[in-house]
Amino acid sequence: MSNKVLTTSNGNPVDNDQTSLTAGVWGPVLMQDFHLIDKLAHFDRERIPERVVHAKGAGAHGEFVVTHDISHLTKAKFLNKVGKKTPMFARFSTVGGERGSADTARDPRGFALKFYTEEGNLDVVGNNTPVFFIRDPSKFPDFIHTQKRNPRTNLHDKNAVWDFFSLVPESLHQVTILYSNHGTPDGHRHMHGFGSHTFKLVDDKGKWKYFKWHFKTQQGSKNLKPAKAAELEGTNPDYSTNDLFQSIENGDYPTWDVCIQVMDAEDAKKYRWNVLDVTKVWPHKDYPLQPVGKFTLNRNPENYFAEVEQAAFSPSHMVPGIDTSADRMLQGRLFSYPDTHRHRLGVNYKQIPINQPQCPVNNYQRDGFMTVNGGSGRAPNYGPNSQNGPEQNNLIGSTFAPEEVEGLIGRFSFELTDDDFVQPGNLYRLMTEEDKNDLCENIAGDMETVDDEIIQRQLAHFERADPDYRRRVEAALKKVKG
Ligand code: HEM
């Protein structure tokens, strides 16, 4: 017998939770059964919209610790002392599938981190790949539509996938990573993470440098072979969710080293690659990884919905000392995430405990659906005021890196150039024979039902990256198509 009395959502004791109130033994149910009506009505509203992308995910709490001093590069307080610890939360995800879809599907993996710093939350919302498929945010909804279901058949549509890739060849670098076995990592613990975009580190004098985030798994990078990934899709669709949860439950806490690549703004102007193009990497031989710290995931959520489903990450959640760059994709994302959170979780999503900063929040935002923080009580709701309300700190450039910008307003498209084929080609040439074969077989398998016109267009892109890339995909296609 439990020592807790069941109550209604209103806190009233419940005499019977198993039998509805009826008029007579076989008579209809009565409206006055508040508990029944409330129970059904609440159940009817249990689902919130799933994330429009990255719907299937797993998360865990952890801790970040600084191991190397980079206070000469950034004034970010959470990085200002070796040994300093910051609580954090991580969520890993697939991109295209629905909330119930399989963990081992071929897809990039989301790698989202929330650091609860003394200067508010810093979110790094990256992937397990250092690059992305496109470099302009206007292409994102179209790209995602090709990864989702066909509007007529509600089936996955490989023709749409390869039609888009072949018409947007800037995607080739990410396509080459995705169809390698990195597209099917062996669980969330065994993959590296990347902030992918170029950001800025800003020091206390307002001087800044470009940088990129890297998170190196200490469990070793491990991928699944295609046959194993396909088998797990059927037999154990929650493979990665379970692996992360069980390892933490067993005290085997996964850890990642946190590193950065740093580049002077002046160097960026002369560099071989456009640092504002998220389809390109900075080769490590040019800009080696510098260690900063490490994070460890050491606590499973108590409640999946409250902590993982309601987690709201955004690249625009930034602390002083870390700033955005003019990367167009990143700029598009700065808008899109808080916008989708307002839709998915409501305007007060930052009041949900998992999203609440763990430092004081003082401002004049008030009210709206689901205000649960007391609305700042009787404090004034306007500023400036003469009632000791919070005031701006007047530190010029404290929340952004001063940067000179000039030019005409216009729609300046990135031209497709041979540059777009060099990095995918280099990546291909770096692969072992076995990896090359897996890559080309994975591509051919995916293209089996694709129209020939689209295949021919895509083969020309493989050829531009490396003639052997095309030859191998063609050979693999012959095998699957007969
Ligand atoms: C999730 C938009 C590019 C990584 C999302 C969500 C949206 C979105 C609307 C759902 C968020 C939610 O419901 O909480 C966009 C747009 C992009 C873009 C408009 C380009 C213009 C990228 C890129 C990366 C990325 C380049 C990685 C480098 C993620 C991750 C999540 C996510 C990790 C899941 C966050 C979580 O775990 O809650 N994106 N995205 N996205 N996106 Fe993007």
TrEMBL record:
Keywords, in A-Z order: Heme, Hydrogen peroxide, Iron, Metal-binding, Oxidoreductase, Peroxidase
Record's keyword annotation contains Heme: yes
Gene3D superfamilies: Catalase core domain
Domain (Catalase core) ranges: 7-391
Example of a GO MF term: metal ion binding
InterPro entries assigned to the protein according to its UniProt record, in alphabetical order: Catalase, Catalase_3, Catalase_AS, Catalase_clade1/3, Catalase_core, Catalase_haem_BS, Catalase_immune_responsive, Catalase_sf
Cofactor (UniProt): heme
Reactions the enzyme catalyzes: 2 H2O2 = O2 + 2 H2O
Record CDD domains: catalase_clade_3 (cd08156)
Enzyme class: oxidoreductase
One Pfam family this sequence matches: Catalase
Binding site for heme: Y337
EC number assigned by the record: 1.11.1.6
GO annotation terms (biological process): hydrogen peroxide catabolic process; response to hydrogen peroxide
Claim: Ion transport is one of the keywords in the record: no
One Gene Ontology CC term in the entry: peroxisome
Active-site residue list: H54, N127
Listed SMART domains: Catalase
Family of the protein in this entry: Belongs to the catalase family.
Function: Catalyzes the degradation of hydrogen peroxide (H(2)O(2)) generated by peroxisomal oxidases to water and oxygen, thereby protecting cells from the toxic effects of hydrogen peroxide.
Protein name (record): Catalase
